[in-house]
Write a structure and sequence with these properties.
Layout (H helix, E strand, L loop, with lengths): L1 E7 L7 H10 L3 E6 L8 H9 L5 E4 L9 H13 L3 E4 L4 E2 L3 H34 L15 H12 L5 H8 L3 H7 L4
């Protein structure tokens, strides 16, 4: 059985083109969403994935209607494949129930893995280059009152009621939380 899935991003767009193409190819049931592809929760897609059974084929008008990213697309099609459910994209003419469609899908998977590895390598190279220049990265260390002399100064400023907390923090270049961590209130 052919089960269709159609999605548009906004309510200004229409599902008619996709629905017509899915009906023409012979989809008996069509699930739809009117939601951005970047959204993780898509009710129509979830219903379609729950509805399809072993031996069925999930059909979309175009690949980008199904997956949020290449990684998500490959994960979704792999899950379908593991359940012995075919996948077909009308526009790209990909059909995982055929050997040619399986080949194209595996090439996509290899390209996605290659892309992830390249991104990982670039990130690591950038971090190493930054470390070589003395940059450690990460969140900056919080300002502290690291000597007894600074703690005593903070305490004396706090004890003088003419100083506001804001003025003390600006003078010592520390946060309010840091000030309260070091002073003793009476």
């Amino acid at each position: 059985m052919l089960v269709g899935y159609a999605r548009v991003s906004t309510s200004d767009q229409t599902l008619n083109l996709q629905k017509d193409a899915l009906e023409k190819i012979g989809c008996n049931k069509i699930f739809t969403d009117v939601i951005s592809g970047a959204t993780t929760e898509r009710k129509g897609l979830d219903e379609a994935l729950e509805y399809v059974r072993e031996g069925d084929t999930l059909v979309v008008w175009k690949l980008d209607r199904l997956g949020r990213s290449l990684k998500h697309l490959i994960e979704t099609i792999t899950k379908l494949n593991n359940r012995k459910i075919g996948f077909k994209s009308i526009t790209e003419n990909i059909d995982t129930t055929t050997s040619g469609g399986k080949l194209i899908f595996h090439i996509f998977g290899a390209l996605a893995e290659f892309e992830r590895d390249i991104i990982k390598e670039r990130t690591n190279a950038g971090l190493q280059a930054a470390r070589a220049r003395g940059r450690l990265g990460g969140r900056p260390k919080a300002k502290t009152l690291d000597t007894p002399k600074k703690v005593a100064l903070a305490q004396s400023l706090y004890d003088n009621k003419n100083n506001t907390i804001l003025e003390i923090c600006k003078t010592l270049n520390i946060s309010r939380a840091t000030l309260y961590r070091y002073i003793k209130t009476k």
